[in-house]
Write a structure and sequence with these properties.
Strand order of the largest sheet: 1-4-7-10-13-16-19-21-22-23
Number of domains: 1
CATH class: Mainly Beta
Number of strands: 26
Number of helices: 0
Radius of gyration: 18 Å
Distance between the termini: 37 Å
Structural class: mainly beta
Length: about 210
């Protein structure tokens, strides 16, 4: 399938876009950056240089993806999501004599979104974090710490509320201790089985 680029999109030099990917109106992608095959980049989205996006990633409208972000395959980034990459940002040097450059430097922290994860609309992702495989970030959440595989987090700051299946169905709830109780959990929708051990969630292999 051919790549589709809307005529109003601004694609800079050294941007790689895979086959079958659609880039919609008023998108700006800085170079160098890499976007895989069969992706969707929604209208008015900004993707900075040095961003790497794998295959079959769905990015909705008005998403801001800054330098230092890597997104694995099958990730959903909903409308209005904002990534950040500097924990203590300043516009200028400490003497106020010159602007700090926009290029990545020693203050830039990298963020990794693992395969299959979903980031809900309007969420803000703090710098230097990892979003685990098939994790789900609730809409409007402010994520300030790394999120485990299959974890469901909500709120500001985002807190663990349970675990979700590959298909998106909740499979377990957080207990009174603040973690997900150990044991086996089965998805009511697709019957996949998960093992929970000390708060970590993994797929059961029979």
């Amino acid at each position: 399938m051919a790549t589709r680029i809307h005529p109003t999109a601004l694609i800079e030099d050294a941007v790689e876009i895979g086959d079958g990917t659609s880039v919609w109106d008023n998108v700006h992608i800085r170079g160098p950056a890499k976007i895989g095959a069969d992706c969707i980049v929604g209208e008015k989205t900004y993707i900075a240089y040095d961003v790497v996006i794998a295959d079959r990633v769905k990015i909705n409208a008005r998403v801001y993806i800054c330098a230092g972000v890597t997104i694995d395959s099958g990730v959903m980034v909903s409308a209005g999501v904002i990534f950040t990459n500097d924990r203590f940002p300043r516009a200028t040097t400490s003497d106020l004599e010159r602007l700090r450059p926009s290029e990545p430097d020693e203050h830039t922290l990298e963020t990794l979104v693992r395969e299959g994860a979903t980031i809900g609309a309007g969420a803000v992702i703090g710098p230097g974090l990892e979003i685990g495989r098939f994790a789900m970030i609730g809409m409007g959440s402010v994520v300030t710490r790394t999120v485990g595989d299959f974890h469901l987090v909500l709120g500001n700051p985002a807190r663990l509320v349970g675990a979700v299946c590959r298909c998106g169905e909740p499979v377990a709830k957080r207990g009174e201790s603040g973690t997900i109780p150990d044991g086996e959990a089965t998805c009511n929708r697709c019957a996949r089985v998960y093992m929970i051990d000390s708060g970590s969630v993994s797929e059961h292999v029979s």
